[in-house]
């Protein structure tokens, strides 16, 4: 059985201590205070090195020294230390966020299509940054362990008015905190997922292997986990094709009820908009929608409003028929070819009976 002290030392290293510093801190904590002599008897470390380690711990606030002789060193309460660090980080976060915004030069240069996020912390950081960037909608397929880590950020996104489409695996039923936002969230669960995937506004996303987070196989060290930060719409749509196949089969846990009071509602990803429109047509409603996108023949940007009259689903072709002042048009999703309009954003404005 693994020595519990090993796990504690690793966690102390996550707080910025070296392995030796963590071991010395733990020894002082266990002894409820100790002299250098007592520490030398229990630790495999030379006296000059021990003095240096203790001085470093004092500078970092982890250890205090008495005024008398011999000096007795006591360990600071770890919870208090973490609380202080959290306050410092919150202040640093606000300050840096503001200063970096001022320094960033507005540019049309594209970011790399794909970059690698190293280790679990890198993947989590990418997920949080992506969630915080969302303005319209988030599509996600997440292992439960990761879902729990990012739940506060997902709830913040919902508070900002972002729509959330979330599939969690393995199956769970603990989504009570999302009930407050039931008009903006759809949650489904499955026993098994395809991957870790989270996409904001079809503009940025995070992808990682399912194997890294499997509960049925041996855990993988945090440092060996990696993921990809992606800025490639075509790749998102290919991954969402896989995701949508599971979404259809997954168990519905939370979903808004299609009714006039919840609109207007904006969609960036075509398949979700089409599903919503199909549900409304079946209920006898006529959706009034605004479509932003481009003319597939001329390639020119378009924005138009109209009434949805029907939908078409045949093989790989999915679209809807829109009645506008300029006539009847067909509207498809990303990379549409046979339709009149390639939709990039769809807003269901209101419903008519």
Account of the 3D structure:
The chain has 353 residues and is an alpha+beta fold. It folds into three domains: 1-109, Winged helix-like DNA-binding domain superfamily/Winged helix DNA-binding domain (Arc Repressor Mutant, subunit A, Orthogonal Bundle); 114-254, Endonuclease, Chain A, CATH 3.30.870.10; 260-352, SH3 type barrels. It is 37% helix and 29% strand. The chain is built from nine helices and 16 strands. The strands form three sheets. Strands 3-9-8-7-4-5-6-10 form an eight-stranded mixed β-sheet, with helices on both faces. A five-stranded mixed β-barrel has the order 12-13-14-15-16. Helix 1 packs across helix 2 and helix 2 (19-31) packs across helix 4 (47-59). The longest helix is centred in the first third of the chain and has 26 residues, at 78-103. The model has no long low-confidence stretch (mean pLDDT 88).
Shape: elongated
Radius of gyration: 27 Å
CATH topology of the largest domain: Endonuclease, Chain A
Number of domains: 3
Helix content: 25-40%
| Strand order within the widest beta sheet | 3-9-8-7-4-5-6-10
Tags for this model:
eight-stranded mixed β-sheet, 29% strand, single chain, 353 residues, five-stranded mixed beta barrel, elongated, SH3 type barrels, alpha+beta, 37% helix, Arc Repressor Mutant, subunit A, 9 helices, Endonuclease, Chain A
Briefly summarize what is shown.
The protein is α+β, with helices and mostly antiparallel strands and 353 residues long.
Would you spell out the secondary-structure blueprint of this structure?
Layout: H1 4-14, H2 19-31, H3 36-42, H4 47-59, E1 63-65, E2 73-75, H5 78-103, E3 114-118, H6 119-133, E4 137-143, H7 144-159, E5 163-169, E6 185-189, E7 196-200, E8 204-208, E9 226-230, H8 233-249, E10 251-254, E11 265-267, H9 270-282, E12 286-295, E13 301-314, E14 317-324, E15 327-332, E16 341-352
Parallel strand pairs: 4-5, 5-6, 15-16
Antiparallel strand pairs: 1-2, 3-9, 4-7, 6-10, 7-8, 8-9, 11-16, 12-13, 12-16, 13-14, 14-15
């Amino acid at each position: 059985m693994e020595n519990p002290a090993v796990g504690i030392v690793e966690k102390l290293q996550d707080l910025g201590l070296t392995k030796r510093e963590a071991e010395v801190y733990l020894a002082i904590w266990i002894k409820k205070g100790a002299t250098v002599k007592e520490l030398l008897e229990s630790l495999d470390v030379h006296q000059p090195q021990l003095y240096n380690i203790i001085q470093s711990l004092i500078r970092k606030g982890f250890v205090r020294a008495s005024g008398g002789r011999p000096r007795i060193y006591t360990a600071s309460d770890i919870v208090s230390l973490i609380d202080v660090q959290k306050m410092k980080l919150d202040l640093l976060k606000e300050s840096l966020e503001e200063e970096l915004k001022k320094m960033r030069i507005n540019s049309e240069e594209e970011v790399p299509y794909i970059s690698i996020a190293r280790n679990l912390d890198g993947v989590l950081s990418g997920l949080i940054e992506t969630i915080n960037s969302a303005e319209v909608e988030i599509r996600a397929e997440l292992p439960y362990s990761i879902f729990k880590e990012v739940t506060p950020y997902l709830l913040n996104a919902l508070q900002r008015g972002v729509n959330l489409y979330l599939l969690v695996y393995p199956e769970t039923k603990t989504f009570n905190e999302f009930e407050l936002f039931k008009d903006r969230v759809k949650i489904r669960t499955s026993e098994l997922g395809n991957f870790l995937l989270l996409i904001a506004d079809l503009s940025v996303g995070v992808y990682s292997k399912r194997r890294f987070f499997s509960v049925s196989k041996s855990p993988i060290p945090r440092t060996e986990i990696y993921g990809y930060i992606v800025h490639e719409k075509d790749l998102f749509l290919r991954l969402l094709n896989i995701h949508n196949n599971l979404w259809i089969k997954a168990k519905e846990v939370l979903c808004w009820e299609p009714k006039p009071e919840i609109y207007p509602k904006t969609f960036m990803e075509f398949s979700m908009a089409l599903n919503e429109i199909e549900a409304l047509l079946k209920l006898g409603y006529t959706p009034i929608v605004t479509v932003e996108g481009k003319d597939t023949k001329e390639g020119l940007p378009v924005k138009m409003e109209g009434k949805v009259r029907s939908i078409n689903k045949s093989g790989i072709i999915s679209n809807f028929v829109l009645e506008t002042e300029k006539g009847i048009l067909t509207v498809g999703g990303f990379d549409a070819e046979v339709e009149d309009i390639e939709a990039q954003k769809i807003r269901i404005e209101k419903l008519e009976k």
